[in-house]
Design goal:
Elements: H1 5-11, H2 17-33, E1 38-40, E2 43-46, H3 53-62, H4 65-73, E3 88-91, H5 101-104, H6 108-124, E4 126-127, E5 148-149, H7 152-162, H8 171-180, E6 182-184, E7 198-202, H9 209-223, E8 228-231, H10 239-252, E9 259-260, H11 270-274, E10 282-285, H12 287-297, E11 308-311, H13 318-328, E12 338-343, H14 345-354, H15 356-362, E13 366-369, H16 373-376, E14 385-388, H17 391-401, E15 404-407, H18 410-419
Parallel strand pairs: 2-3, 2-5, 3-4, 7-8, 7-10, 8-9, 11-12, 11-14, 12-13, 14-15
Antiparallel strand pairs: 1-6
Helix pairs in contact: 2-8, 3-4, 7-10, 9-10, 9-12, 10-17, 13-15, 13-18
């Protein structure tokens, strides 16, 4: 790998041991990927804090939070002092909601250790956003901006909708990027990696959030980690629709970028989206494909009695919280069912001020932050059947927790929460 003089100086220890470890990690990582160089980034989203009992025990045994960062973020067995970050860095979601430890099944000792870890991350200069959707709460990269982001649904969103550039990174590479402002220059950082590979022609309107989730799941299952190009779109989709579309495509497959002709910034036309590529294959998506996809997603659903309704994967927008509150107003969550809605802390504060939290809590629901049931592996006790308006969560939660899952619209999920019964497809 070719390194600039500045990068060699960081690697050789000019800026301290932690930066040298970070640069060594990036060089090894880049060489394994076949990258020829590093690219500068000033926008990083990763995970720095410690939220597990294992990390707490490790810190107690090995020398505190510096030991945790050295081992788990820099791949360094030697403990080095953690410096302040150089890149603008945001923290992603956690393994639990520290404001609801009882519901999350987390001890007060683990919460206290996390709060120490969070304070340390803030002193490093990391923005404590604690969400899978940083682009909703202040970190909005611009077109062409090189980033280093974790979280599959966030990666596909900023690559595709915003035109920023990132690969799906991990805890170690993002932490190294925070300290060096560098990341391997390969994949979606390069023009060639961003061109379309497979085409989709729409034979039906794709209008609702549910529609967009189903389309994304069908596409991801087909193209896997390639770059789909979709044309035939009618009305321009809003943020929640694109959020759910990308999350679904990155769940059934490994899609990190897509093009919607006439909508996304690098797809003014079919020809622009593909560039010098020829479509490897073009398929059509219509009512039959939609119906088959819905049937496949709901294949785990058998019992109609619903114990738990989870909304907010990816984290809910303020628009989605408003919609849920309007659907719930004047109703009550069934005594045998629980409703948890997950959102970023900043959006929860807005929901509080607008009165949406009060409506939801009066109905018997809860707004939770920082995590989700897939990340925390936490659901209400006795949960057997879950209702979801997220294809991504319907894909993961049955495998993670062994529950049955029903996927449908937000209105169907709210109705299930209030009746304790799934009446959707």
């Amino acid at each position: 790998m070719r390194l600039s003089d500045e990068e060699k100086a960081m690697r050789d220890g000019r800026d301290g041991a932690a930066v040298a470890r970070a640069m060594d990690l990036l060089v090894r990582y880049g060489e394994a990927l076949g990258a020829e160089s590093l690219v500068e980034t000033r926008n990083v989203c990763g995970t720095v804090t410690a939220t597990t009992p294992f990390m707490r025990d490790f810190a107690l045994a090995k020398g505190g939070l510096d030991a945790v960062f050295s081992e788990f973020n820099l791949d360094s067995a030697e403990v080095v002092e953690t410096p302040r970050v150089r890149a603008f860095s945001s923290h992603l979601q956690l393994g639990f909601d520290p404001h609801h430890p009882v519901e999350m099944g987390v001890s007060e000792q683990v919460v206290e250790f996390y709060r120490r870890s969070e304070a340390a991350a803030a002193r490093m200069g990391v923005q404590i956003l604690n969400t899978c959707t940083p682009y909703q709460v202040g970190n909005v990269p611009t077109r062409g901006e090189h980033c280093a982001w974790m979280e599959s649904s966030a990666v596909i969103y900023i690559n595709s909708v915003l035109g920023a550039r990132t690969n799906a990174e991990g805890r170690e590479s993002t932490s190294a990027a925070m300290l060096t402002c560098r990341i391997p220059n390969w994949g979606y950082h390069l023009d060639a990696g961003r061109r379309g590979t497979h085409g989709i022609e729409l034979d039906m309107p794709v209008e609702t959030v549910e529609d967009w989730g189903l389309l994304g799941y069908w596409i991801g299952d087909w193209v896997q980690d390639r770059v789909p190009v979709v044309r035939g779109i009618g009305a321009v989709p809003n943020l929640p629709k694109l959020k759910h579309f990308g999350a679904a495509a990155s769940s059934s497959g490994g899609v990190e970028m897509y093009h919607l002709v006439g909508v996304t910034p690098e797809a003014g036309s079919w020809e622009q989206a593909f560039g010098t590529n020829r479509p490897a294959e073009v398929r059509r998506y219509g009512a039959r494909e939609r119906a088959q996809t819905l049937e496949r997603i709901n294949a785990m659903g058998q019992d109609r009695q619903v114990d738990y309704v989870m909304l907010g994967c990816p984290h809910y927008t303020i628009e989605q919280i408003w919609e849920a509150a309007m659907l719930l107003e004047g109703r009550r969550v069934h005594a045998n069912c629980a409703l948890w809605i997950f959102t970023p802390r900043a959006i929860k504060a807005l929901a509080d001020r607008n009165g949406y939290t009060a409506i939801i809590e009066t109905a018997g629901g809860k707004i939770m932050t920082d995590s989700c049931s897939a990340m925390s592996r936490a659901v209400p006790p006795g949960t057997r059947v879950v209702a979801l308006d997220s294809v991504k969560q319907a894909h993961y939660l049955p495998a993670i927790l062994g529950v049955q899952a029903w996927f449908g619209t937000t209105a169907q999920c709210i109705d299930a929460a209030c009746t304790g019964h799934w009446s959707g497809a």
